[in-house]
Design brief:
The structure holds two protein chains of two kinds. Chain A contains seven helices and five strands. Chain A is an alpha+beta fold. Chain A has a single domain (13-179), classed as Glutaredoxin. Chain A has a five-stranded mixed sheet. In chain A, helix 1 (33-48) links the parallel strand 2 and strand 3. The model of chain A has no long low-confidence stretch (mean pLDDT 95). Chain B has one domain: Glutaredoxin, CATH 3.40.30. Chain B is built from five helices and nine strands. In chain B, the strands form three sheets. In chain B, strands 5-4-3-8-9 form a five-stranded mixed sheet. In chain B, strands 1-2 form a two-stranded antiparallel ribbon. In chain B, strands 6-7 form a two-stranded antiparallel ribbon. Classes of the chains: A alpha+beta, B alpha/beta. Chain A binds chain B through residues 2, 5, 29, 32-34, 62-65, 135-136, 139-146, 155, 157, and chain B through 47-51, 53-54, 56-58, 61, 87-88, 140-146, 148.
């Protein structure tokens, strides 16, 4: 059984209450069509469990098969540095067919980011180490493709459609209550 | 599951298998550095980031231990060549094609009911001994964490660039 390493920390991109009984972690790639399919499903799960679920996103760009994957991950990190990680994350998944640098800068502008800073940080690969560190943690955690989900630190090997995610989260909540 | 994979402590049976049309790779030729054998059921599994594509992305992590990765299935060299080109794989795929599954049988990971190999991993040390083996449920990509943990455990020397 594969476990999340390292566990979720302040360094992660987190949405939802810090004291939620369940944390869902996704390792994803902005250019991966399966991740694109997972994106609205995760949104639905977050809405269904409003206020009871913490969601974390970590980068797992498959750069050999997805030429824009690393760059887009760095763009999301650049947005994070200006406090708009989730906004950029959403825009990228909603525009998976338009991930050239010019598009990334357009999105930065739409989100009212400091575009020249984003441009400079992309040119300098400022967040390459951060993205690579996420990738390495994924490899060490047993990520086996994208997307890979972890529910309270355990890799989800079952389906990740809405019912699959909800069932896994429900099982984890039951477990968390029992151990509390 | 009817397989019985060779366990840690067993010398890895030597073999020579085609790695490309007209080329043969012998396991014993890799002595002196760790080797990873990744048996998998078939080329062309229909997902992004399948097991071989994933390992292609994690080669850099394996290389830090000086370890060589070999993928093995019962597909032919021509099938492997097309698959490797399509997925831009940068490590050899070996064809356990004739006699079919012979190497898989010797490693205890043949699936007679399907005529393919198990989804099985072996980590072999620099002296040619198996130090870790694992058979994953056939439909679960095992990822790379077990391989890296095994390389850590055998004290494979990390080569930091």
């Amino acid at each position: 059984m594969s476990h999340l390493k390292p566990s979720v920390s302040q360094a992660d991109h987190r949405a939802g209450p810090e004291d939620a009984s369940v944390t869902l972690v996704e390792y994803g790639d902005y250019e991966c069509p399966h991740c694109g399919r997972a994106y609205p499903i995760v949104k639905r799960v977050q809405q269904a469990l409003d206020g009871q679920l913490r969601f974390v996103f970590r980068n797992f760009p498959l750069g050999e098969i997805h030429p824009h994957a690393v760059r887009t991950a760095e763009a999301a990190e650049a947005a994070a540095a200006q406090g708009k990680f989730w906004e950029m994350h959403d825009v990228l998944y909603e525009n998976q067919r338009a991930l050239e640098d010019t598009h990334l800068l357009e999105y930065a502008e739409q989100l009212a980011l400091d575009v020249s800073r984003v441009r400079r940080e992309l040119q300098d690969s400022t967040y390459a180490d951060r993205v690579r560190a996420d990738f390495r943690s994924g490899v060490r955690s047993g990520v086996n493709g994208t997307p890979t989900f972890f529910v309270n630190g355990e890799r989800l090997d079952g389906p990740w459609d809405f019912e699959g995610l909800m069932n896994a989260i429900e099982r984890a909540r039951a477990g968390a209550t029992r151990h509390a | 599951m009817n397989s019985n994979p060779l366990a840690a402590g067993t010398p890895a049976p030597d073999f020579g298998l085609p790695s490309a049309p007209g080329e043969t790779l012998r396991l014993s030729a890799l002595r002196g550095r760790p080797a990873i054998l990744a048996f998998y059921p078939a080329d062309w599994s229909p997902v992004c980031g399948d097991q071989m594509a994933l390992y292609n992305e994690t080669l850099g992590e394996f290389e830090q231990y000086g370890a060589r990765l070999l993928g093995i299935s019962v597909d032919s060299v021509w099938c492997h060549a097309a698959f490797a080109e399509n997925r831009k794989l940068r490590f050899p795929l070996l064809a356990d094609f004739e006699p079919k599954g012979e190497v898989a049988r010797r490693y205890g990971v043949w699936r007679a009911e399907d005529g393919t190999t198990e989804r099985a991993l072996f980590v072999i040390d620099a002296e040619g001994d198996i130090r870790w083996s694992y058979v994953s449920p056939i439909d679960v990509n095992p990822g790379a964490d077990g391989i890296l943990d095994a390389l850590d455990a055998i004290g494979a020397v990390k080569e930091r660039p």
